[in-house]
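Thread: quick sanity check before group meeting

JM: Hey all, I'm pulling together slides for Thursday and realized we never actually wrote out the predicted structure for the chain we discussed last week. Dropping the sequence here so it's in one place. If anyone has concerns about the input, flag it before I start.
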Amino acid sequence: MRLSPLTRYGLRAVALIYLFVLLIVPVTLIFWRSFEHGVGQFWEWITTPAAISALQLSLAIVAIVVPLNVVFGIVTALALVRGRFPGKGILQAVVDLPFAVSPVVVGVALILLWGYGGWFGGIESAGFRIIFGFPGLVLATIFVTLPFVVREVEPVLREIGTEQEQAAATLGANGWQTFSRITLPAIRWGLTYGIVLTVARSLGEYGAVMMVSSNFPGISQTLTLLVHSRYVDDYNEYGAYAAATLLMLVAIAVLIAMTLIERGAQSRVGDTDEAAGDEPSTGEAPAEDVAPAVPYGPASTEPHKEGM
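JM (edit): ok, ran it. Output follows.
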């Protein structure tokens, strides 16, 4: 379908206005209110003991959730794409469950499961606290970020097929060698995007962690909970803006780091391909350019006929 220039420009203008109103304006306003009283005041708001502990707690959750989601996400994607087993459709639905269920419901379910009087609530009697502690925050974050790696890796696995893996197995490679040298390099970009989404959601999750957190600074208060606490409980509007800006800066830094890693990997892959494509020059003509000898062809039979 061909669109007129006026229609194309109109659609672009609508998209840009939509992004400007819903994304650029709110983010710019938060930055402006955060630095309204100067950089010094902003630095004081983000270096309080509560802010530092909230940042450390958020980064600790990310450091635990991302590796777990990478491992189990890849395993789940491989099972869904390569495996054939009863209940495969149920597993597909379970993976998408965090997209359909509200994070608040997830928090309530964790309380009923791990809280006092829950199915596994007796574990608190052993001195290991799940709900209203750090483990509860990790469990809630794992649940809400579970689908990202799976749904980014799964279509890539379907696209690459199994031909190369079968060829590696035929040549004698074991399972780990096939995965590390064939499968993992093929899914690296989908895995990278899944990791970026997991990090962003882990840093910005609020509903699920709010239900399983005591919201005590230094114990179970993340950056998102600090923003809410300052804005609603302490009536510290500018302090809440500063904490929100700190959260955005951390997310932007993670995205930049992932982009640099991706570009570095792409450049290494390109250099490897170029090195493999270059052949050393020996000064001799290629073998296919040399006329082959034909001992019994027409060229060799002509002198024999003349002699006859």
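AS: nice. Confidence is low (pLDDT under 50) at residues 281-308. The longest helix spans residues 237-277.
JM: adding both to the slides.
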